[in-house]
């Protein structure tokens, strides 16, 4: 049982980690050698002021992420206060081993398409460091901070 549990809780983040460390599934103990899905967390401020329909925002983002084929790679969450109260609404992108981003001045429903494009650009960028933000649409003008990965 303990051996099976260890295999289910495999700690390597990506298939490349296994290849770099072990070369094969036999020496790694990982049974499923399909590539890991690189995921990101998209967090939207739930406490930003103004008239907002949180359900409509969530639906708009989920729909555009699904249309972009990102529903398995983007975890959608809400979080209270990103300290961007002067320019609501704020959102953040985070992922293990990648840069983090905070945007503000977002209209979540109207900008849902650009949010999905930004998520795709982030996932396509080495370590999440976006060099060319043009695919992000209007969000490229809403960036407040970019923090390098640890």
* Termini separation: 35 Å
Give the domain tally. 2
Mean pLDDT reading? 82
- What fraction of residues sit in β-strands? 15-25%
- Uncertain runs with pLDDT below 50, 5 residues or more? 1-27
CATH architecture of the largest domain: 3-Layer(aba) Sandwich
Which value, in Å, is the CA radius of gyration? 18 Å
Plain-language structure description:
This is Metal-binding protein. With 150 residues, the protein is of the alpha+beta class. It is built from 5 helices and 5 strands; from the N terminus they run H-H-H-E-H-E-E-E-H-E. The protein has helices at 2-8, 15-21, 25-28, 54-67, 112-124, and strands spanning 40-45, 74-79, 91-94, 100-103, 143-147. Helix 4 packs across helix 5 (112-124). The chain is globular and about 35 Å long. The model is unreliable at 1-27 (pLDDT under 50).
């Amino acid at each position: 049982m303990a051996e099976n549990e260890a295999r289910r809780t495999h700690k390597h983040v990506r298939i490349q980690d296994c290849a770099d460390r072990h070369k094969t599934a036999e020496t790694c103990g990982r049974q499923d050698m399909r590539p890991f899905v690189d995921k990101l967390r998209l967090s939207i401020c739930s406490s930003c002021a103004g008239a907002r329909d949180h359900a409509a925002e969530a639906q708009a983002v989920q729909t555009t992420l699904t249309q972009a084929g990102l529903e398995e790679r983007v975890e959608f969450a809400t979080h209270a206060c990103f300290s961007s109260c002067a320019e609501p609404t704020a959102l953040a992108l985070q992922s293990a081993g990648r840069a983090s981003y905070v945007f503000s001045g977002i209209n979540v429903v109207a900008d849902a398409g650009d949010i999905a494009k930004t998520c795709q650009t982030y996932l396509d960028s080495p370590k999440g460091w976006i060099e060319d933000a043009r695919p992000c649409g209007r969000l490229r003008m809403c960036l407040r901070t970019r923090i390098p990965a640890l």
